[in-house]
Amino acid sequence: MSLTRILILVGAAFVLTAVNVSILGKEGIKRDGVVIYLDLQPVDPRSLMQGDYMTLRFRLAEEIRAQVKPLPAEGEMGRAEVSVGKDRVARLAKAGESGNLRVRYRMRKGNVWLGTNAFFFEEGSEQRFAPARYGEFRVDAGSGEAVLVGLRDAALKAL
Questions:
Q1: CA distance 3 to 10
Q2: Where residue 51 falls among pLDDT bands split at 50, 70, 90?
Q3: Distance CA 146, CA 139 (A)
Q4: Which of 16, 36, 59, 141 has its CA 20 to 30 A from that of 133?
């Protein structure tokens, strides 16, 4: 076997290992993470190129962008202190207030990115998700990484 083929096989094995480790990490967060709900505002319910999906904008992301100074540079990560209410709805902790959870975010094109900005659903089921008012997240208490696991209506009922 030539050196080129060996390098290709080693590279492919490395990429597959990295992808699987990332998947296992997110599955662990989905299983064991802290449940929080983030207020959302649906933006665009459809994409002809990608199938049906809902573009999401989170109130927490807007609060971070407006109130956290200085923000990290483009592509960099930060962590925001959030307070989680009895209903599990999270909001940015006020100045001087100690939050009870830190949520990791990244700056992308001048906006705060909380892990995702879209929720994909089966074609033809857009009416089911139209009443969405909250994104349900699981957050790793150590790293602050947030994974969107579902959408909730105004009464926090799963959609």
A1: 10
A2: low
A3: 4
A4: 141
